Amino acid sequence: MSASLREPIARAPEILRSPRLDRARLDAILAAVLARIDDNLAVFTDAFPAPSSEGGVYPAIDNIEWTNGFWTGMLWLAFEASGEARYRAAAERQVRSFKHRIDHRINVDHHDLGFLYSLSCVAAWKVTGDACARDAAIQAADALLDRFLPTAGIIQAWGDLSNPAEAGRMIIDCNLNLPLLYWAAEVTGDREYAKAANRHIDQAARHIVRPDASTFHTFFMDPATGAPLRGTTHQGFSDSSCWARGQAWGVSGFPLVHRYNADPALIDTAARLANYFLNRLPDDLICCWDLVFTDDSQPRDSSAAAIAACGLLELARALPLGDPDRATYEAAALAMVETLGQHYLLPEGPPGTGVLAHAVYHMPKGVGVDEACLWGDYFFLEALVRLTRVWEPYW
Ligand code: GLY
């Protein structure tokens, strides 16, 4: 098998023929998401939604999870989309909570600092110029850089760095944590952040991406020698299958990193991953939780579809106009957003009700199966914002 297989997109003609969303319809879906945020604002200003819902309703939690930034990111998106001061006021209260969290090192012993701080504090800095938020985000980037293992050339995903069970493990999700390092390099002028991110993304492309353009969820490197050891799954069906959300993290993360380092190989990699993803979708283009499943026998993961929609738009933006798949990526992203907006929105419910139904958090553990997942709600809103205005990513 070629080491750089880019499958043709089998359903490209059908995807290109799919009806285009019109602006009025996009605005109506966006208004529905903003209305859901309004319903939840009172509960989730001094508290945060849990990672996944229970019966469609998010329990309230403190700022302790890897997912808290998605809600704050939704508030910033809502503020940018509407100009309404109530979203900014709530987001700013939460930014103070993120400063407290990094000052006191509360549950930050993992690599998800990009998810947490890009969408809360980097967003605050970009949208309002909040210097305290910038400082908190730089502190978070420092904590992320502390997880860089120089010999292996990777950022270790989980666990204390002295924990042998987690030593040398990188995961595909980390692609979305790297923009925090590039951003820190830009605002501080210190290239060490960017050098670590460059090493990690190269290792991810080399070892997490398989020759057929599917991905391992996680991959172990030997931290002492730098030797690649083995790929395993954590949330997917099996070590050899392709966890749908992991593939979506790849489709979105490689092009986001390309924004910072302009390496064309990242766009080529993202296109290969995108085609693998698009070729393993059920009829309505909303993936099952693992791409080994392509029919209604298994739960969908709407959150992976929302991430992939943003990734396809980011990828299309980076590709030359003449790329044969560029239009298909845009059409597929639109079709996914349309389907999510028409068939996957949770109906109105009590305060705390999520946005997107039918996501899966952790199938092997049976956590958050067929529920709303907070990152799915975030990326659905990000996709709507990308499709309706010129928007500077918080990543
Ligand atoms: N980054 C963890 C997840 O996607 O579930």
TrEMBL record:
The keyword Cytoplasm does not apply. It comes from the Bacteria. Pfam families: Glyco_hydro_88. One of its GO terms (molecular function) is hydrolase activity. Keywords: Hydrolase. InterPro entries: 6-hairpin_glycosidase_sf, 6hp_glycosidase-like_sf, Glyco_hydro_88, UG_Glycosaminoglycan_Hydrolase. Belongs to the glycosyl hydrolase 88 family. This is Glycoside hydrolase family 88 protein. It comes from Caulobacter segnis.
